[in-house]
């Protein structure tokens, strides 16, 4: 497989369609794979998979609580289960089922939350997900990963299917998403990646919004501000070691996420820092705990300080 | 089927329910809902289900899910009768660090398939397990016991639709219809009206029986449906077996004092 | 069309089909490989191969091999 060709194609397809392609590869590798959904095949890029492997595909209709229970039952009987639907329904509608079946009973399911963050803002906040990381973080035994681009999704999903505990993977952005990882690199759930070295200021982000972080960092370099950019793709278990190290070496950390500043990546970083004595300032950029009026992805990123300009502004304001 | 053997099994379940609840003392226990399910659970464990202590993890075993998890005293008692649990295990009920709590905790080696207790969740698990059987071409049957109050939960109906859609004729869903839920009668809290016709309209082969008639329970459990999940709406009495407790919702969750324990001995 | 050979090559490669499966009468959804994912792969292949950028209307209108020729013409690929 030519990695670089795939990176370009996958980025133009976006994370959801890429998920559909990865699913086909996973079905070849894992004979006991089951993908379960709540009436979302096309939206998850799964039409091709569904036609090729109908016996490995289960649609339970628009019934997410049943989806998790059924998936857990299948998992308890030896199937490798990936469940998927839009992020708010994948995480909040069936949150207690996730707690009881995955957290408490430790049945292993890989959950893929489609179109998380703000990308479906034109449909209103019922279809946006700014609470998924926060809600799941308080349930033990579930890892939470926000891949930065479709290539990272490929790596994350492959690892998630093999690992022992449940994983929630949150997909962000749409078609023509930004390429964050242009070459092959080492990926491991729980280990953050420095994608741009720098000093004094560290921008820590997760999800495709890292594209804006990189752009902001590049413009700041013109002003002789050399911030580093860290891809903290795993919010749970968060890379505590790296966070502590960053806090020692920098004066300012700015976290950036398409999620409420309460409960997500920023909170995870804050919790880690509160356990240590450090002089580093922490500023959390994201959704400031309110639902704005709906609109395009760009419109919403601007409202919530997630545009390139606003990220730059935040860094400059806190120097 | 030997009726005497089944009736005896049920009697022992009731004895163990009372014994365990008494030992729990001030921690109290869910008694009424365990007693109402005792005859159904007795028939299942004594005769119908293929479950053996020596082959407790056998992939071909029948699966039992107590979705109305608060009736766990009946389950634990049945497991003692099958010698999968020991009687002295019952004395650890609700104690610190115990594997036997007020709701079942998953422990397949002890014959407990899933942690239930949050109502409305056990049926979906049962659907998953029954679907797995079809996919793996296994012949085991999945039995799920629901409470009638539990049928207030929308998630139950999601799972019923699903079981019917996938023609899960390898599932038996038994509703312990004792007409009470925590705060009072179903009819005053959330009226289920005709539960049997509801399940029928959801595509299940549904029968309604006297949930304390051992013969009728047995008969309803021996025949699978051709291509539908089977639902048995069992009309029961909450607290059945102890006259003092019957149809008295105060015994949903309560303490058995020394004097009450002494008084009810003759009924056991 | 000067670039027809190149267009056909990109078509076959993007949809991952055998040369034998290709014919100029092909339409979207005629074959398994030209589904929604195949379509996006095709669009990506054409943009990369001819150094053009297709807009949403182009992507939606691109319902057959022949229609593709017209769209490429619009982008000055003849």
How would you describe this structure to a colleague?
The complex is a heterotrimer of chains A (about 325), B (about 270) and C (about 80). Chain A is of the alpha/beta class and about 325 residues long. Chain A contains twelve helices and twelve strands. In chain A, about 40% of the residues lie in helices and about 20% in strands. Chain A is globular, with a radius of gyration of 19 Å. Chain A starts with a helix and ends with a helix. With about 270 residues, chain B is an alpha/beta fold. Chain B has a single domain (about 5-265), classed as 3-Layer(aba) Sandwich (Rossmann fold), CATH 3.40.50. In chain B, the strands form two sheets. Chain B has a five-stranded parallel beta sheet, with helices on both faces. In chain B, strands 4-5 form a two-stranded antiparallel ribbon. In chain B, strand 6, helix 9 and strand 7 form a beta-alpha-beta unit. In chain B, helix 5 packs parallel to helix 6 (about 155-165). The longest helix of chain B is centred in the first third of the chain and has 22 residues, at about 5-25. The two termini of chain B are about 25 Å apart. Chain C has about 80 residues and is mostly helical. Chain C has a single domain (about 5-15, about 25-75), classed as Non-ribosomal Peptide Synthetase Peptidyl Carrier Protein, Chain A (Orthogonal Bundle). Chain C has helices spanning about 5-15, 35-50, 55-60, 65-75.
Give the arrangement of secondary structure elements.
The complex is a heterotrimer of chains A (319), B (268) and C (78).
Chain A: H1 3-29, E1 33-37, H2 47-52, E2 57-59, H3 64-76, E3 80-86, H4 87-93, H5 95-104, E4 109-114, H6 132-137, E5 142-145, H7 150-162, E6 166-170, E7 193-196, E8 200-205, H8 210-222, E9 228-231, E10 234-236, H9 240-249, E11 250-260, H10 265-274, E12 281-287, H11 297-303, H12 308-317
Helix pairs in contact in A: 1-7, 3-5, 8-12
Chain B: H1 3-24, H2 32-48, E1 63-66, H3 72-81, H4 87-90, H5 122-136, E2 142-147, H6 154-165, E3 171-177, E4 180-181, E5 184-185, H7 186-189, H8 195-201, E6 205-210, H9 214-222, E7 230-235, H10 258-264
Parallel strand pairs in B: 1-2, 2-3, 3-7, 6-7
Antiparallel strand pairs in B: 4-5
Chain C: H1 4-15, H2 36-50, H3 56-61, H4 65-74
């Amino acid at each position: 497989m030519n990695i670089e060709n795939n990176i370009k194609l996958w980025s133009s397809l976006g994370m959801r369609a890429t998920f559909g392609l990865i699913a086909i590869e996973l079905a070849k590798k894992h004979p006991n794979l089951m993908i379960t959904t709540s009436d979302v095949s096309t939206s998850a890029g799964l039409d091709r998979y569904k036609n090729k492997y109908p016996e490995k595909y289960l649609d339970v209709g628009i019934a997410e609580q049943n989806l998790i229970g059924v998936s857990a039952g299948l998992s308890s009987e030896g199937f490798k289960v990936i469940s998927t639907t839009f992020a708010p329904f994948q995480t909040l509608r069936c949150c207690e089922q996730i707690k009881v079946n995955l957290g408490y009973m430790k049945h292993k399911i890989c959950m893929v939350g489609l179109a998380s963050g703000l990308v479906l803002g034109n449909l209103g906040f019922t279809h946006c997900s700014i609470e998924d990381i926060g809600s799941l973080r308080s349930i033990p035994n579930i890892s939470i990963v926000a891949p930065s681009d479709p290539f990272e999704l490929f790596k994350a999903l492959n690892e998630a299917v093999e690992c022992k505990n449940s994983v929630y993977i949150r997909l962000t952005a749409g078609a023509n998403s930004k390429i964050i990882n242009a070459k092959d690199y080492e990926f491991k759930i729980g280990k953050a990646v420095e994608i741009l070295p720098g000093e004094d200021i560290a921008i820590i982000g997760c999800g495709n919004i890292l594209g804006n972080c990189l752009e902001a960092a590049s413009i700041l370099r013109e002003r002789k501000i050399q911030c580093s950019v860290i891809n903290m793709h795993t919010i749970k278990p968060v890379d505590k070691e790296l966070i502590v190290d960053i806090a020692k070496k920098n004066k300012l950390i700015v976290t950036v996420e398409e999620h409420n500043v309460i409960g997500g990546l920023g909170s995870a970083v804050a919790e880690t820092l509160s356990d240590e004595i450090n002089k580093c300032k922490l500023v959390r950029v994201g959704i400031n705990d309110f639902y704005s009026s709906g609109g395009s992805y760009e419109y919403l990123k601007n409202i919530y300080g997630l545009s390139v300009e606003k990220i730059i502004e935040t860094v400059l304001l806190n120097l | 089927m030997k009726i005497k053997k089944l009736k005896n099994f049920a009697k022992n379940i009731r004895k163990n329910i009372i014994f365990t609840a008494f030992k729990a003392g001030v921690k109290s226990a869910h008694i009424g809902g365990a007693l109402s399910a005792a005859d159904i659970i007795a028939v299942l464990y004594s005769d119908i289900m293929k479950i053996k202590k020596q082959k407790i993890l056998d992939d071909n075993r029948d699966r039992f899910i107590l979705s109305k998890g608060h009736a766990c005293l009946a389950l634990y008692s049945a497991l003692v009768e099958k010698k999968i649990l020991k009687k002295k295990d019952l004395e650890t009920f609700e104690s610190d660090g115990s594997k036997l709590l007020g709701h079942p905790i998953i422990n397949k080696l002890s014959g407990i398939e899933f942690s239930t207790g949050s109502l409305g969740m056990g049926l979906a698990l049962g659907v998953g397990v029954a679907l797995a059987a079809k996919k793996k071409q296994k012949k085991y049957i999945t039995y799920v016991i629901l409470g009638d109050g539990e049928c207030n939960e929308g998630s139950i109906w999601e799972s019923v639709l699903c079981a019917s859609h996938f023609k899960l004729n390898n599932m038996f869903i038994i509703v312990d219809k004792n007409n009470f839920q925590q705060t009072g009668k179903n009819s005053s809290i959330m009226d289920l009206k005709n539960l049997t016709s509801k399940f029928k309209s959801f595509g299940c082969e549904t029968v309604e029986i006297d949930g304390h008639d051992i013969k009728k329970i047995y008969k309803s459990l021996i025949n699978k449906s051709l291509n539908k999940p089977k639902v048995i709406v069992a009309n029961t009495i909450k607290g059945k077996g102890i006259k003092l407790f019957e149809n008295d919702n105060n015994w949903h969750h309560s303490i058995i004092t020394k004097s009450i324990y002494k008084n009810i001995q003759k009924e056991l | 069309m000067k670039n027809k050979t190149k267009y056909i090559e990109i078509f076959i490669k993007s949809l991952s089909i055998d040369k034998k499966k290709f014919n100029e009468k092909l339409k979207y959804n005629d074959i398994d490989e030209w589904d929604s994912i195949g379509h996006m792969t095709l669009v990506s292949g054409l943009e990369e191969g001819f150094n053009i950028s297709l807009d949403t209307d182009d992507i939606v209108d691109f319902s057959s091999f022949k229609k593709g020729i017209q769209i490429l013409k619009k982008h000055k690929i003849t």
